[in-house]
């Protein structure tokens, strides 16, 4: 490559980098704007010009959100449901993934295809019958009712199977020689060897459940049983429009998942790529 | 090594049982029920009379259903391909960066994807607010008249599509980045030695090698956007949802607001079949295209 071509190459390279950076800042700007607006007092929020920083930063909107809505209760509901779904889903998927990966039993292939096929089925088409089912079980307006239809995550089984397939066979054979039980093999060898995947899948399963909207919205009618993602959109209207307070409620609702992402950035991106069927 | 296959079967059954039980209860049973009640005139809760194909035949003359189909198609058109292209462009930009800088820039693009839809709704409802939204100040400054975005019929779906691209691009960007990372550096080095231009390198190397990922992203996006509900519901609060009717919203309206379980189920079955057919078809088509390229 001659010198001039190299120079041109670098110039355009620099331009693209700068462009990407500007684009990223513009992309994230609405998030920044939402947070900043939630820190402004009422009169500043509606000023007819742009102020990128609050003149008198205040937490009054947050205090008002916490004291005048049931946001605390919604938080507890969201945490309970998200933790419940995550623990149950991870546990049953682990067991099922292990059986499909390591054991030979009749119906194994059929089960595997069933799991793969359910990937294509739109869960949101099932809302009517989920509602009927949960109503018949008497679980509307309850944590168990919000959780039940959300326990179907075939992709987690698929990822576990792939990872268990990769564990060298020697480990298993040695354990079988020692008369270890299948449960022992699973929980003393296969699970500990794959803690990374379990952590990553747990975090994204938590995020998915925390963010779920349609089903929690349908299955709960009582304000005190709402999850936070539903609550913040349902109740504010009753008090008239307080933009800054709505935004502070939004910040509170988004904070746990945003922090989970920022703390475990690599794990989250790894699990999300895995969930699409790509090895990271 | 001797393996006792009967014990093995028994253990397998125990391990598979919890998943299978939940799967049958919360997935297979509702699916079967959905098909069954779509042939009856059942209300949301309770039994109905068998009416044969009546619920499906009615859809043919149902203007609201037709609108729901068109709006869903329109929404898919505005999100799937544009969203994928935007994600690809961003991924190409991000993949050139290194280390911490790359992680930071990626986080800025990815953060919206991690947020609940209701938070996305509140943020954009505020940003595009007719009276006080910052976007309207920008419009004023450009001397373009303000638009009440989510109250205007013409702007509603395009705006929701834009917000949706913003919200979901992070996922596609991640997949593209994984794809770009798996292209061997040597190929690019060889191209650089040949004095290949940026555009030729992209067209001859990056694009074909990235095609499997592109097709995956397109498929995932298509299936996701056919099921659009949350954003349309939320942005329609206080507006006119009937103008912005989409398929899942129609299921919701028929079942939960008009108490017509059977007729809602017929719409749900239509959506169900549509998603399954489209995903199988598109998957096959893209695989075919990939094979021809080789």
UniProtKB/TrEMBL annotation, chain B:
Pfam (any one): BPD_transp_1
CDD domains: TM_PBP2 (cd06261)
Alphabetical keyword list: Cell membrane, Membrane, Transmembrane, Transmembrane helix, Transport
Topological relation to the membrane, as annotated: Multi-pass membrane protein
Entry protein name: Sugar ABC transporter permease
Principal place of residence: membrane
Native organism: Mesorhizobium caraganae
The keyword Membrane appears for this protein: yes
Superkingdom to which the source organism belongs: Bacteria
């Amino acid at each position: 490559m001659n010198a001039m071509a190299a120079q041109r190459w670098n110039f355009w390279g620099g331009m693209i980098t700068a462009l990407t950076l500007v684009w990223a800042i513009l992309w994230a700007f609405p998030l920044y704007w939402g947070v900043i607006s939630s820190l402004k007092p009422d009169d500043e929020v509606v000023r007819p010009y742009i102020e990128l920083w609050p003149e008198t930063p205040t937490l009054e909107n947050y205090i008002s959100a916490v004291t005048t809505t049931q946001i605390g209760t919604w938080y507890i509901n969201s945490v309970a449901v998200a933790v419940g779904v995550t623990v149950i889903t991870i546990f049953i998927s682990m067991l099922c993934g292990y059986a499909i990966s390591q054991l030979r039993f009749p119906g194994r292939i059929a089960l595997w295809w069933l799991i793969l096929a359910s990937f294509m089925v739109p869960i949101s088409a099932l809302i009517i019958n989920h509602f009927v089912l949960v109503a018949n079980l008497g679980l509307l307006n309850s944590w168990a009712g919000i959780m039940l239809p959300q326990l179907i995550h075939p992709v987690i089984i698929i990822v576990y199977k792939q990872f268990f397939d990769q564990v060298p066979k020697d480990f298993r054979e040695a354990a079988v020689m020692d008369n270890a039980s299948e449960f022992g093999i699973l929980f003393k060898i296969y699970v500990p060897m794959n803690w990374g995947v379990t952590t990553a899948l747990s975090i994204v399963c938590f995020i998915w459940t925390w963010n779920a909207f349609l089903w929690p919205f349908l299955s709960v009618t009582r304000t005190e049983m709402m999850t936070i993602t539903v609550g913040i959109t349902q109740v504010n209207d009753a008090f008239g429009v307080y933009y800054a307070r709505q935004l502070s409620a939004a910040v509170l609702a988004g904070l746990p998942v945003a922090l989970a992402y920022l703390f475990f950035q690599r794990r989250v991106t790894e699990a999300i790529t895995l969930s699409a069927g790509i090895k990271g | 090594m001797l393996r006792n296959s009967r014990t093995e079967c028994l253990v397998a059954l125990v391990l598979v049982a919890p998943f299978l039980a939940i799967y049958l209860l919360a997935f297979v049973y509702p699916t079967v029920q959905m098909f069954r009640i779509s042939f009856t005139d059942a209300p949301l809760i309770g039994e109905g009379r068998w009416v044969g194909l009546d619920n499906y035949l009615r859809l043919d003359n149902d203007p609201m259903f037709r609108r729901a189909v068109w709006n869903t198609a329109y929404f898919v058109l505005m999100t799937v391909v544009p969203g994928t292209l935007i994600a690809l462009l961003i991924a190409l930009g991000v993949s050139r960066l290194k280390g911490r800088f790359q992680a930071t820039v990626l986080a800025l693009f990815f953060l919206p994807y991690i947020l609940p839809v209701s938070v996305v709704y509140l943020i954009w409802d505020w940003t595009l607010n007719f009276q006080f939204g910052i976007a309207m100040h920008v419009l004023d400054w450009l001397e373009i008249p303000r638009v009440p975005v989510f109250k205007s019929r013409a702007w509603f779906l395009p705006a929701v599509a834009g917000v949706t691209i913003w919200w979901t691009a992070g996922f596609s960007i991640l997949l593209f980045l994984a794809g770009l990372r798996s292209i061997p550096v040597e190929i690019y080095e060889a191209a650089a030695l040949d004095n290949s231009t940026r555009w030729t390198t992209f067209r001859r190397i990056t694009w074909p090698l990235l095609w499997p990922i592109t097709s995956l992203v397109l498929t995932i996006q298509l299936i996701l956007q056919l099921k659009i509900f949350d954003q349309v519901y939320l942005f329609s609060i206080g507006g006119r949802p009937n103008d912005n009717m989409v398929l899942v919203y129609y299921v919701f309206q028929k079942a939960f607001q008009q108490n017509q379980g059977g007729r809602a189920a017929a719409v749900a079955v239509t959506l169900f079949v549509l998603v399954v057919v489209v995903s199988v078809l598109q998957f096959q088509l893209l695989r075919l295209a990939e094979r021809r390229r080789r």
